[in-house]
Amino acid sequence: MKILNKWPKYYKKDVVTHYCPGCGHGIVHRIVAELLEEMDLGKRAICVNPAGCAVLAYKYFDIDVIESAHGRGTAIATGAKRVRPDLFVFTYQGDGDLSAIGTAETIHSANRGEHISVIFINNAVYGMTGGQMAPTTLIGQKTTTCPAGRDPKFQGYPLHITDVVANFPGVVYAERVAVNGPAGIQKTKKAIQTAFQCQVDELGYSIIEVLSPCPTNWKKTPADSFKWITETMSKEFPIGVLTDKRGSGA
Amino acid sequence: MNKVFISGNHAFGEAAIRAGCRSYFGYPITPQNELGEYMAENLPKAGGVFVQSESETAAINMVIGASAAGARAMTSSSSPGISLKQEGISFLAGFQLPAVIVNVMRGGPGLGNIAPAQGDYFQATRGGGHGDYRTPVLAPASVQEVADLTFDAFDLADRYRTPVMILGDGMLGQMKEPVVFPEPIKNIPEKEWSLKGRGNGPSRYMASLILDTMEMERHNWELVRKYQEITKREVRYETYMLDDAKVVAVAYGTTARIAKAAIKRVRKEGVPAGLVRPITLWPFPKKILQELAQRVSQFVVFEMSAGQMVEDVLLSLEGRGNVHFHGRPGGVVPTPLEFARILYREYQRTVKSGS
Ligand SMILES: Cc1ncc(C[n+]2csc(CCOP(=O)(O)OP(=O)(O)O)c2C)c(N)n1
Ligand code: SF4
């Protein structure tokens, strides 16, 4: 008998998820847990989780986890990885966390080429605090703090921070993927695997931006959320590899 | 026993390395730049990690990461930078993570200036960041004490799993004095609680978000019990010429040294003055002041601020004695003569008149 699917070793059992139905966080959590097992990283892993909907990630990941103040994840990861280079250290952050309040930490940890892996969940809103505008909110997208839709005259433009850091010599691998259906989920897993491998191979910093549904604050069904990512969000944030310097000895 | 002539800022660094500190994260700010520079030069040689961070906020969070992973970690700054670290210090307290934070104070508020000041006493002793927590605060008054207290700070931090602040000022940081350093620590006991990957054991997490109010309260009381323990065991102070004193100065750090010189001066004029110098600002040396209040009625608090520690003196004395305050905020360093005049006046005015 071939086992097609099993409970990931590093995903806690008997926990009830706090994520909303159709939320991308749960899907990416599962991917991460599977990879920690498949790549044999779980025993030496430390996850730095954010302030954001994933603040409770330790309830699910059965590995060592430390919570960060809002936006400071990559600084904490820097400290841990520098003193214990043998550990596998990754951050898991939302778009408010990583590209608003934590912009400086994001840019500079990337520019130093810290040997960490960054999982960046872009859902174009602040999920945890109730759907306010994020730096990644699309032009015209309505949120509780841009109720008439984001107007670049007043709120500026969606911030493409992954594209920014992809230009840095110390960033070995950057890719944008989407949780928008089975194919997207498979690609997301592949991308995170590549990022993790960069750290295993001691190559430098890697970041995977995941376009991820927030049906609750988008006020859409899970199915429509997938569709919105495919048809609208990925037009602003195109899917694809943003940098791959693995062969170049960066 | 090797005596070296060294600045306060360098002494912080050398003592930290000898105390087993293997990670330092900081951002330049005057008057403590020499400390970061010393670490950049010497910490890697000792097998440690030095990172110049992009901000003080990042630095304190790097400290959190290094400390969570089990290393002895340190950061330093001066007043404006310490304000930026407060969020991280609150997290360190909540996570119960050890760390040593040096504040080489300067004049404020705002950017203020780069002269020695003591205006961050409230911030240091009241917690500074948000939430119900305390931070032990050590106040050296000489470069020798910088070395000794830095050593002790790492031990205190580890013993109680708490951030510890060392509160100096620009004078102490820049001044050179002869110092005998403690012998380097050979072995630091393994920190059982640190995150090192779960291995084959159970996974662990450090979370400061505790949504359940009863759980959060339990966590708060756990911290309080620890602070009570620290208050019971770790109070430190120095006394100077108290035996026959009728006027007692209370001062810490640089100000205490100036006060000592003033006391010597007025004693020549027949004024029986003495000094209590708090070494731990939190926990504050209450008891000695209360004991003194049984026989002394005049207390004079000297600070390089507009009056902060004086509140702790008042709280300690609980209405006993007369408390006079003399402070110089803004980075002005008072002179011994200035303090001497105050001591003389207070003695004349109140003690001699028999009140
Ligand atoms: C210093 C600070 N400011 C504000 C907050 C409140 N806060 C918590 S999470 C969050 C935004 C979360 O949005 P995002 O990072 O996009 O993650 P998501 O919840 O969407 O996954 C904010 C503003 C906080 N916890 N700390
Ligand atoms: S609010 Fe949005 S991001 Fe947060 S759990 Fe719900 S769906 Fe997910």
Describe this entry's structure for a reader.
- The complex is a heterodimer of chains A (250) and B (355).
- Chain A is α/β, with parallel strands linked by helices.
- Chain A has a single domain, classed as Rossmann fold (3-Layer(aba) Sandwich), CATH 3.40.50.970.
- Chain A has helices at residues 24-38, 73-83, 95-101, 103-111, 152-155, 161-166, 182-200, 215-218, 222-236, and strands at 45-49, 64-67, 88-94, 117-122, 125-126, 132-133, 171-178, 205-211, 240-244.
- The mean pLDDT of chain A is 97.
- With 355 residues, chain B is α/β, with parallel strands linked by helices.
- In chain B, the strands form three sheets. Chain B has a seven-stranded mixed β-sheet, with helices on both faces.
- In chain B, helix 11 links the parallel strand 14 (298-303) and strand 15 (322-327).
- The radius of gyration of chain B is 21 Å and the shape is globular.
- The N and C termini of chain B lie far apart (51 Å).
- The model of chain B has no long low-confidence stretch (mean pLDDT 97).
- Chain A binds chain B through residues 10, 42-46, 48, 51, 55-56, 58, 61-69, 72, 75-84, 87-88, 104-105, 107-108, 112, and chain B through 22-23, 25, 49, 51, 53-55, 57-59, 61-71, 73, 87-88, 91, 95, 195-200, 203-209.
- Thiamine diphosphate binds next to helix 3 and strand 5 of chain A.
How many structural units, i.e. domains of chain B?
2
How many distinct domains of chain A? 1
CATH superfamily of the largest domain in chain B: Thiamin diphosphate (ThDP)-binding fold, Pyr/PP domains
Number of H- or I-type helical stretches of chain A: 9
CATH classification class of the largest domain in chain B: Alpha Beta
Ends of chain B: how far apart? 51 Å
Uncertain spans of chain A, ≥5 residues at pLDDT below 50? none
Question: How are the strands of the biggest sheet of chain B laid out side by side?
Answer: 3-2-4-5-7-6-13
CATH fold assignment of chain A:
Rossmann fold
Low-confidence blocks of residues of chain B? none
SSE series of chain A: HEEHEHHEEEHHEHEHHE
Task: Write out the CATH superfamily name of chain A.
Answer: Thiamin diphosphate (ThDP)-binding fold, Pyr/PP domains
What small-molecule ligands were found?
thiamine diphosphate, iron/sulfur cluster
Termini separation of chain A (Å)?
Answer: 45 Å
From the helix content, strand content and strand pairing of chain A, which structural class follows? alpha/beta
Under the CATH scheme, the architecture of chain A is: 3-Layer(aba) Sandwich
Fraction of residues in β-strands of chain B: 15-25%
- Quick one: overall form of chain B? globular
Shape of chain A: globular
* Approximate strand percentage of chain A: 15-25%
